[in-house]
Amino acid sequence: MGNLALPTSLFRTDATTSEPDNSGKFVARRICNGIIYYYTPMTAAEHQTVTLAKDSQATSTLFPVSSPVSLETPSHTADSSPMQSDAASNSRPLLLFFSWLCAQPGAVAKYRELYLDRDMDVLLIQSSVMHFLWPRWGLNYGLEILNILEEPPFTGRLILVHASSIGGYTFTQLLTHIAQQPTQHTPLAHRVIGHIYDSLVVGSLDHMATGLGKTLVPRLEGFIKTTAMLYFRLFKSYTADLYENSIQVFYNNPVTSPALFFFSENDAMCSTAVLEKLMDSWRRRGVSVDGRKWKKSTHAAHLRCHPEEYVSTLQQFLNSLSVPSHKSNI
């Protein structure tokens, strides 16, 4: 599969938006349809640190320092100088948040704020149902994301992955390209310092079809599930066979940094037995794997159902990665 052509500038397309949130705490930039970059503008102190590090050619810092990228912003973004108010700090870790299907902005914001408050920038990646129903489109999307991550202002930055529900499938499409073209993409895999999976859809085609029904039109769940199973059978070589390939890639994940799983026993879209088998398989490969399981919770809503336990577990995991933060907690 050839490389997808990207715009000359990722931030200078008709789809690009640039506006701060109401509180002025962060800037949001739409890179393309489904992908939005959230970052906190560099402070004067951060800019001075980056400049000094660059001038002294420091190479021993945990996070590589590169020149800040100047991104065009309408004049209403901030009153201070562009360098202080509208430049992203390329020394910060980048959180890739692969959201669940049909995620609402308010729900996504809760996860975004967890990481922005911990001094990370966030790249929100949303998936279309067609990325799943026609996997080749999902693979194209995965390659587009990979290309974006290898362009400024993301080049060389350390990455943390948080994938929820179908987001795990989308992340796997990136992993497929990494596995198929290791020479080209393995350096990016080595930049991933940790990966978090929340409510993965794991098990059989039946679990996948159930997920579609519950997510798309819950009132027609049974009909959608039956239709999806028929579709999988009719187009097996274009769907089920490619899903199986993706599962094998995920089992042999080229990202071997520490992993964390959130899941529940009553999740109809996830076979806990299969998921725990996967976790054990990774441990045998030498991957550090942690998990938080609840007897009862809601798919892709563990943070809402069990906020204190969720945040505490996440905090412990992030601390184990030595992710720097100027905040005492999240």
From TrEMBL:
SUPFAM superfamilies associated with the record: alpha/beta-Hydrolases (SSF53474)
One example GO MF annotation: serine hydrolase activity
Record region (Disordered): 65-86
Name the UniProt record assigns to this protein: Si:dkey-5i3.5
Species of origin: Xiphophorus maculatus
